[in-house]
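Lab notebook: predicted structure, single chain.

Context: the supervisor wants predicted structures on file for every construct in the current expression panel, including those that have not yet been purified. This is the next one on the list. No modifications to the sequence; it matches the entry in the shared construct table.
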Amino acid sequence: MEAFLYKVNNAIVNPLIYLMMAVALVSFLWGVAQYVNKGDNEDSRAEGSRHMLWGIVGLFIMFGVFGIIHIILNTFGISDPNVNVFIK
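Prediction complete. Output recorded below exactly as produced.
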């Protein structure tokens, strides 16, 4: 069961988290570009700042999810089944 959960985490959950982190980073960078490039238009600046805010919120949430998943895995002792760890 441990090996299955570890494989699901590595094959499905982690890539989804990385994808969502990338989307949040692109959203943040898009907001920065809008804010800088269209500085004379107040509506574009407001939209750019909203993109930046939601990009930062998304990154914060994804880092939190990543950390919570690792805490859960460490709590239940789920690790890479191919690594032999000897505890003395």
